[in-house]
TrEMBL record:
Pfam families: DC_STAMP (PF07782). Residues 3-140 form the Dendritic cell-specific transmembrane protein-like domain. It is found in: Membrane. Keywords: Ligase, Membrane, Transmembrane, Transmembrane helix. Coiled coil: none annotated. It is a multi-pass membrane protein. It comes from the Eukaryota. GO terms for cellular component: membrane. The chain crosses the membrane at residues 12-32, 96-117. The gene is Dcst1. GO terms for molecular function: ligase activity. The keyword Transferase does not apply. This is DCST1 ligase.
Length: 168
């Protein structure tokens, strides 16, 4: 059960790194948006007028020809780079919860797996009592063998220590 919980650590770290990276990127893009906004305002105007004085035929001809060149215009242009700037949107608390929910379910399943194994053994013991009795006897005998081996090993260690001369 502990090993399964340890296997949940890499996805947890990945989730923490992803959420932290999301927060850092959102903060950086917000700073870029705030400090990179530029707005241009350009205004220009021109007036072109040609005055021909006189009453002769040539003056009238020039007035009709050059009169078409008389013009005036006022231009005002406002430009900004707002459309080019990043528009960061931070994840909401709900989105963070939705991204953490699968990992929480995984941890919960790891914790409940031991109880599921016990329930499985109880159901099998109810359905097959003879097999359960032989399983319990096998486990009990295995435990007795392990204890016997441990006691023998400790006796050998004590005997080796007793034979070894003491250094002052």
């Amino acid at each position: 059960q502990v090993l399964q919980l340890l296997e949940c650590i890499p996805p947890l770290l990945l989730l923490l790194v992803a959420c932290g990276l999301d927060h850092v990127l959102c903060s950086m893009l917000s700073i870029i948006q705030q400090h990179s906004f530029v707005q241009y305002s350009f205004r220009s105007s021109h007036h072109l007028s040609v005055h021909v004085s006189g009453t002769s035929l040539m003056a009238r001809l020039l007035r009709s020809t050059v009169g078409a060149l008389n013009s005036s215009s006022d231009n005002e242009v406002q430009m900004s780079n707002f459309a080019c700037l990043p528009q960061p949107r931070a994840m909401t608390r709900q989105q963070y919860l939705h991204s953490c929910a699968p990992l929480a379910v995984l941890l919960l399943l790891c914790l409940l797996q031991g109880y599921a194994y016990r329930l499985r053994r109880a159901i099998a013991a109810f359905s097959f009592p003879k097999r359960e009795k032989s399983r319990v006897l096998f486990l009990y005998n295995k435990l007795l063998r392990q204890r016997h081996h441990f006691v023998r090993l400790q006796r050998q260690r004590l005997a080796r220590r007793a034979r070894r001369p003491r250094a002052l």
